[in-house]
Specification:
It is found in: Membrane. The chain crosses the membrane at residues 25-47, 59-78, 117-137. Residues 18-150 form the RDD domain. It is a single chain. Helices cover 57% and strands 8% of the residues. The chain is mostly helical. It folds into 2 domains: 3-155, no CATH class; 162-246, no CATH class. The strands form 2 sheets. It has a two-stranded antiparallel ribbon with strand order 1-2. Strands 3-4 form a two-stranded antiparallel sheet. Strand 1 and strand 2 (13-17) form a beta hairpin.
Length: 249
């Protein structure tokens, strides 16, 4: 399993294990089974439960094909919609503990997921051989869609697990200070905490200051430095995020 160094917005590299070809294929198979199950159910409802098959009588072949395309449409947009809603995961990816991330450290956007989805048409051509070859020969196990969108699929089964890095002990009577933190994602908070932890160990005040300013800029916060230091501010942000998202130990 290879590693990928993701350069964060604070110009700090964080190493992740890339998802293996096997993990990605299993995730694809799980998602494929879900989509097939949907098709079986929707067709059974259409023809047997609702008995709407008569609507196809008398239609030309193009019209019949259009009806089937409409019924199957959710299966086509399945990866695009779910990756956008689940922050780079589908049910298959979630079960395999892998996730789509931007190589530059930012949270992948809908546009990035859209590019991956469009290129999927090429990647799955020739029974998926194109995408498979691309993942095997590329440095970071990227298919063409990943390369075009600047993304990679990482494994969460390691010591740099995104979920684990945002955990923070908070007391039951903890009172949060910044509800604006709900605008951040798990990936944002993982980057914040990882960079902050490294900066504290190295006593790198410059990184701490840049990180603090970046958070304030994103959340549009103005903090009186005489009432809260930059270190205190970042600590509170991390605790507040865990408080609002219910991520505790």
């Amino acid at each position: 399993m290879s590693q990928i160094a993701i350069n964060t917005s604070q110009n700090v590299n964080i190493n992740f294990n890339t998802a293996s070809v096997g993990e990605r294929m299993l995730a694809f198979i799980i998602d494929l089974l879900i989509r097939v199950a949907y098709l079986v159910i929707i067709l059974y409802l259409f023809f047997n439960i609702l008995d709407l098959g008569y609507l196809l009588n008398g239609l030309d072949s193009w019209s019949v094909m259009a009806v089937y395309i409409i019924l199957a449409f959710p299966t086509y947009i399945y990866p695009l919609v779910l990756e956008s809603l689940m922050e780079g995961q589908t049910p298959g990816k979630k079960l395999m503990k892998i996730r789509v991330v931007k190589i530059d450290g930012y949270q992948a956007s809908f546009g990035d997921y859209l590019i991956r989805w469009v290129f999927r048409l090429i990647d799955v051509s020739f029974a998926g051989v194109v995408g498979l070859i691309s993942m095997i020969v590329s440095k970071n196990n990227q298919r063409l869609g990943d390369i075009a969108s600047g993304t990679a699929v990482i494994s969460l089964k390691n010591s740099i697990n995104i979920s684990h890095t945002i955990l923070e002990n908070i007391n039951e009577d903890y009172v949060p200070s910044f509800p604006q933190v709900i605008a951040l994602s798990d990936n944002d908070m993982r980057i914040i905490k990882d960079n902050y932890t490294k900066a504290i160990k190295a006593d790198d005040r410059q990184i701490i200051s840049k990180l603090s300013n970046k958070i304030k800029s994103i959340l549009k916060l103005e903090i009186d430095p005489t009432k809260m230091t930059e270190r205190q501010f970042i600590n509170v942000i991390i605790k507040d995020y865990n408080y609002y998202t219910g991520k505790d130990n």
